Amino acid sequence: MSERQTLSYLQRCFKQARIQPQTKFGQNFLIDLNLVNMIADSADITKRDVVLEVGTGMGSLTTIMAAKAGHVVTVEIDHYLAPLARAEFASLENVTLLEQDALKNKHHMDPVVIETLRSKMEAIPGARLKLVANLPYNVATPIISNLLSIEPWPSRIVVTIQRELAERICAKPSTKDYSALSIWIQSQCRCDIVRIMPPTVFWPQPKIDSAIIDIQPEKVRRDRIPNRAHFHDLVRKIFLHRRKFLRSALFSAVKDQLSKQQVDEVMLKMELDAKSRAEQLTPQQMIELCELVRAVQSETQA
User: Fold this and answer.
1) Check whether domain 7-222 has CATH 2.30.30.30, yes or no
2) Which of 2, 23, 42 is CA-nearest to residue 211?
3) Taking CA atoms, which of 50, 56, 204, 216 is between 20 and 30 Å from 270?
4) Torsion (CA) 213, 288, 290, 178 in degrees, nearest 10
């Protein structure tokens, strides 16, 4: 295992296979084995866990996790790279490699991936789902975001992503990084940045820093959101107009359903003034705002 994730080993394997890392797939391979182990260790993987890995790479993290997990479902979109990864863990019976995109589109996980996870979880009493991966940069946001929308709901997410994205996920209200994504994730999870990583620990080297982020979903938080699909959609629409005052952004998001007077009534009930902005609201305040909007929408449609 010690040699498998070194730069020289990766370069030799790629040369023999006559392939190159694919920028279009966001491929940056982690070449520091200590950091690969840190990702797996941070997720506290046990035999109860079915682990989803998106971006199999050469299978180094996959193999480490398979020794701890009940099952690992690993997804690799690169059909030239997948056979190299498969050779690394060919003898492991608790690894399933899916050669495909993990996403159906930017708003949904691929149904084959979801059904495979459900199937593997059915075979393990009290199974938990965890996402643990060195995520390809180009799919990091939709993978994390969409996974919080599905059943089974993940019990842990430990992933390597862009530092900028990690900071956006963990951002506090009234800061420049606070966004719809911050609210969506923090409304359901605790989030911590485990480690910042320079470009030098990857091959090829990205132009930006990366981070290992630990996202811990909490059912008590999730249960505060009566309708997650409505909440997710409305928060996203409001932040499409984040430069506007909240009243204008909210009206733009619901103008086909609510009048300006109804939007003003929602603002009044929330005790928000005309100069309030979306990025000032905590996740809990945003939940309350979205529920008030949903209630008015239901009355209007009745």
Assistant:
1) no
2) 42
3) 216
4) -30
SS (H, E, C) 138-190: HHHHHHHHHHCCCCCCCCEEEEEEEHHHHHHHCCCCCCCCCCHHHHHHHCCEE
Residue type, 262: Q
Q: Are strands 128-134 and 202-203 parallel, antiparallel or unpaired?
A: unpaired
Q: One fold for both 7-222 and 228-301?
A: no
Give me the CATH code for the 228-301 domain, please. 1.10.8.100
DSSP secondary structure letter of residue 79: T
Q: What is the pLDDT of residue 1?
A: 43
Measured over the CA atoms of residue 243, residue 231, residue 296 and residue 175, the dihedral's sign is negative
Q: Which two tokens stand for residue 286?
A: 């945003």
Which ranges of the chain have pLDDT less than 50?
A: 1-2
Cα–Cα dist 57/41, whole Å: 19
Token digits for 104? Answer: 């159906």
Between CA 20 and CA 32 the distance in angstroms is: 20
Considering only CA atoms, give the Rg of the chain.
21
DSSP string, 26-69: T--EE--HHHHHHHHHHTT--TTEEEEEE--TTSHHHHHHHTTS
**Distance of alpha carbon 25 from alpha carbon 20, whole angstroms:** 11
d(CA 45, CA 15): 33
Token pair 């199999």 in the structure block, residue: 56
Q: Using alpha carbons only, what angle is made at residue 87 by residues 64 and 61, rounded to the nearest 5 degrees?
A: 20
What pTM was computed for the model? 0.94
Residue 122's identity, in one-letter code, is: E
Contact 290, 235 (CB under 8 A): yes
Domain segments of the chain as ranges: 7-222, 228-301
